[in-house]
Amino acid sequence: ELVYLNGWTGTFDEATISVNDRGFNFGDGIYEVVRVYESRLFAMDDHLDRLERSAKAIDLDLPWQKQELTAITEELLAESGISEAMVYIQVSRGTAHRNHIYNEEIKPNILVTVRSVPERSPAMYQNGVKLITQPEFRWQMCHVKSISLLGNVLAKNRAHRAGAAEAVFVHPDGTVTECSASNIFIYSNGQLLTHPADNKILAGITRKHVLAAAESLNLPFAEKPFKINELMKAEEVFFTGTIVELVPVVEVDGQSVAGGKPGPVTAKLHQEFTSLRK
Ligand code: PLP
Predict the structure, then answer these.
(1) Which of 158, 219, 224, 237 is deepest in the core (most CB within 10 A)?
(2) What is the pLDDT of residues 241-277, one digit of tens each?
(3) Tens of pLDDT along 169-215?
(4) So which residues are the catalytic ones?
């Protein structure tokens, strides 16, 4: 494990930041989580593009070029000696006495951490997992990868308490958007569906690469909203994220979905996702 903080490198125990950091006070910041496979950053450009889009959306001027961020991350990664890693990059607006109004002059704080990828249970992929639904109670800027994650945290913990792997957000009209920390797909009537990348979801990097895998397999797909009743009847359901990749879903709010077992399309897409990144 290793930490980079504003030019300093050390351990988690030693790293400190001001209590006036706006990330700490307001959740005023953005982040990325990047997967490292065999010592190589996966889709770093996609992540840095998204970091730049998030920064722009919250009027934060990133003082670093993508190249610099890549160099900082690669150096930290090499120093850590970890080959299967999870990289966390966080940028807060900066440090100043607590005031909602920020001074345009403050300098963003940057944190990069490298840790081993947490163990993923093979049972999750072999047997599938449970979801709970949650009414969408977050904000209108879900496309920003903001460190203000209270809604996501509450939803995920409700899922955890219910013995489920994820919570999926459902709008009042039944539209399914995404999960607390992942995107969601259904396979129905020979077509793969996922919500369009608008302000209601985070445009997942895994989501993007799964759509590329569908294309490469000649599997029909559409970025089109679908409703919870369609999900309940779908042939297959899975969610996607950087660390979990693709996870088959077999139960929602205690009801069996997708025939109660992981399906062949999910497995095929996962396989293609894996081979495309090599
Ligand atoms: N949606 C939300 C709300 C997330 O927090 C995440 C990842 O943490 C995702 C989707 C999936 O994004 P990615 O595939 O880039 O990890």
Answers:
(1) 237
(2) 999 999 999 999 999 999 999 999 999 999 999 999 9
(3) 999 999 999 999 999 999 999 999 999 999 999 999 999 999 999 99
(4) 145
Cβ of 204 closer than 6 Å to ligand 1, yes or no, is yes
Q: For residues 146 and 50, what is the distance between their CA atoms, to the nearest angstrom?
A: 11
Q: Which helix (H) or strand (E) holds 132?
A: strand 129-135
Pocket test for ligand 1, best of 202, 210, 238 (most atoms within 8 A of CB): 202
Buried b or exposed e, range 44-71, using 16+ CB within 10 angstroms = bebbbebbbebbeeeebebeeeeeebbe
Nearest CA to ligand 1 atom 3: 181
Cα distances (angstroms) measured from residue 174 to each of 24, 129, 169, 187, 260? 35, 22, 9, 18, 22
Residue 269 contacts residue 193 (beta carbons within 8 Å): no
* Index of the ligand 1 atom closest to the CA of residue 152: 3
Domains and CATH numbers, the chain: 2-116 (3.30.470.10), 122-276 (3.20.10.10)
Tokens representing residue 132 in the block: 């709970």
Residue 147 to residue 90: CA distance in whole angstroms? 8
pTM of the model: 0.97
